[in-house]
Amino acid sequence: MAKEYLRTFRLYDFDEVEKHLLITGDLKGDCASCRALGIDFYTAGTCPECGTPFKYCASRRLEMNPGERFQWARRMQEKRPDLVLIDYSDYAKILGKKKAKDIFG
User: Fold this and answer.
1) What is the Cα Rg of the chain in Å?
2) Nearest-5° Cα angle at 30, 50 to 69
3) Collapsing DSSP states into helix, strand and coil, what is residue 34?
4) Apex CA 30: angle with CA 25 and CA 26, to 5°?
5) pLDDT in tens, 20-79
6) What is the pLDDT of residue 64?
7) In the chain, which residue ranges form alpha helices assigned H by DSSP?
């Protein structure tokens, strides 16, 4: 039987994900923990600025190109099997709620 990518849901500690998240773009990535830019997401195991080890990965690009979701997942799984792939829109939504709660209590 052929293996296929399926989206699944699992509970995560958001602070843990945020601290160890590598966010990819078209060519380079950035560290969610310290906001360092220009990270080679195919090779960087840790942030070159803050030294945080990357455990999770999400892509901003998929927001504008959702049809590329599974191609991105396949490519990242091949090149970075050490990272857990998460959906960026889920991350951004929770981050927005967290920031609002911090501002408004």
Assistant:
1) 14
2) 140
3) coil
4) 15
5) 999 999 899 999 999 999 999 999 999 999 999 999 999 988 777 777 888 888 999 999
6) 74
7) 14-19, 69-79, 88-104
